[in-house]
Amino acid sequence: MDAIDILRKFGLSDYESRVLLxxxxxxxxxxxxxxxxxxxPRTSVYESVDSLRKRGFIELSFSKPQRFxxxxxxxxxxxxxxxxxxxLSKLSEIFESVERRSEERKEEIWVIQGELTMKxxxxxxEGARKNIKxxxxxxxxxxxxxxxxxxxxxxxxxxxxxxxxxxxxPVEQRGGKVRILKPGKPxxxxxxxxxxxxxxxxxxxxxxxxxxxxxxxxxSGTLVQFYNYFxxxxxxxx
Length: 238
Fold this sequence. Notes:
Blueprint: H1 3-9, H2 14-26, E1 29-30, H3 31-38, H4 42-55, E2 58-60, E3 67-70, H5 73-105, E4 109-113, H6 116-126, E5 131-136, H7 141-150, E6 155-160, H8 169-173, E7 177-180, E8 192-198, E9 202-208, E10 214-220, H9 222-237
Parallel strand pairs: 5-6, 6-7
Antiparallel strand pairs: 1-3, 2-3, 4-10, 5-8, 8-9, 9-10
Helix pairs in contact: 1-2, 2-3, 2-4, 6-7
């Protein structure tokens, strides 16, 4: 892949790419000189330099004949980088908006098993935008670290067993709310299990005996409301 192919990926036309590379290589030039060296017709050279100027890649003189030159390569690359990041940010917002609408509409249940269970659980936590509610008998280290990481930007409520109280301190210190079940309450099993609700849109019940022996059930719609009601009741009675 050469420079022209790469510039095309950033939205430059073939003529614009050739004119820009000619100016980078040759320095200050007139439209005639650009045309001769790049092979771009002179009428198209004027169109190309006007477009490149608007993109912030070249500058022009007010002399006669008019002359053109490329900005320093560092500035051009930084300009391309900023534009790419801006477009990716806009695309991410569009994708997230579409995803939210999709989640709001659908009533679905998905099942995952094995090592993917933990990865999906962590990705749900990382992708939270507003709030997280989680009820768990024991909290895995990876989950605790991820909750601590996002605690300053999203609202977190956790309910768990007395044995986990100390380990949950890092989340509390970053603003998370932790509630502890009274002795004798349920959620005491050998396997790690629990339920998480993210942004009131999606829930995941999970069971871990080991990395490979694990199960996750992801749901949306009315099941999320049910788990929300369940966790809220537990929290109020804790």
